[in-house]
Amino acid sequence: MTTPVTIIGAGLGGLVLARVLHIHGIPATVYEAEPSPSSRSQGGMLDIHDHNGQPALRAAGLFEEFRGLVLEGRQALRVLDRDGAVLFEQPDDGTGGRPEVQRGELRRMLLDSLPAGTVRWGHRAAGVRALGRGRHEVAFADGATVVTSLLVGADGAWSRVRPLLSTATPRYTGMSFVETYLLDADTRHPAAAKAVGGGSLFALAPGKGIQAHRESGGTLHAYVALARPQDWFAAVDVTDAAAATARVAAEFEGWALELTALITDTDAPPVLRPLHALPAEHSWDRVPGVTLLGDAAHLSPPNGEGANLAMYDGAELGKALAAHPDDVETALTAYEQALFPRSAEAATEGAHLHGLLFGDDTPRGLVDMFAVA
């Protein structure tokens, strides 16, 4: 296959696709809006699943390198009630199928596996238009353009490529996360560190919750979930960290101090993350020369599957193109025919998990699920 592949977005899915294509000798260029690989934080921990994320890394020839990034012990989890009492606890005995890594380290591994110049930084896609016969033009914010006969939108929730295929747009789910970080927690925030334990923490109530991960270097990364309209969050000034965290913590009045400390004691400015989703059954008719992967194709509320699915999409698309080097449309058709049911199933399962986390029966339903897993 000599047709160069143009990938919009250097997230995990786009990079896995580029890597799999590189292994098979297929040229690809990735255009990324960020000015450099270190221009912003890449987020926290990811559990890489043995049924999708790990096979994707095997297809990319990077599984052993990935194993070197795993943070041992982080598969431990605990569920606490609002008073801080442990309702369920599961240690990490080393046999789990979801080892944890730092997202930034995983992305760096993928970037380092690609030939120099594969990723073109500082290229924010401003729009895409069809030119006919499967060719498309991508216009960038700086005025530059590129024409391609094989375009992949790996550009996330607000994809510029998606409108070529679908009129669907993400809708607010009714819930947002507020992210906080407690640094050097065992020394500076010992009560919160003890509550979180060695891996993941869930402290939940209907419509709200405090989730946290123990990251590398003694960092606690918390995701504070609240089911509130966007107007409610618009009134929270996250640039005033003390006022913002006090306002959010007020929604957890009466909860144990070691839990609310994950909100009020943040060592970094809080970050608001409104949660959006595409329809669970999102699909499109085959359009020559273009397809989607990851959140651009199947955005869902966080459920532990997003990054894994994006990498799996990238690997499967790369393998399909390698299997049909002289027939791009056959490759894209095969990829999408598997993508749509896979995405719908994951979205349905994610919605069920969301209900266990924040529905009327929480945390009991979640505890029961963990107990029988």
Which residue ranges are poorly predicted, with pLDDT under 50 across at least 5 consecutive positions?
Answer: none
- Give the amount of beta strand, in percent: 15-25%
Distance N to C terminus? 44 Å
Cα Rg: 21 Å
Number of helical elements = 13
Helix coverage percent of residues?
25-40%
Mean pLDDT: 95
Strand count, sense and barrel status of the largest sheet are: 7 strands, mixed
Helix/sheet category: alpha/beta
Oligomer: single chain
Task: Give the helices and strands as they follow along the chain.
Answer: EHEEHHEEEHEEEEEEHHEEEHHHEEHHHH
Shape: globular
Strand adjacency order, main sheet: 5-4-13-14-15-12-16
**Number of E-type strands:** 17
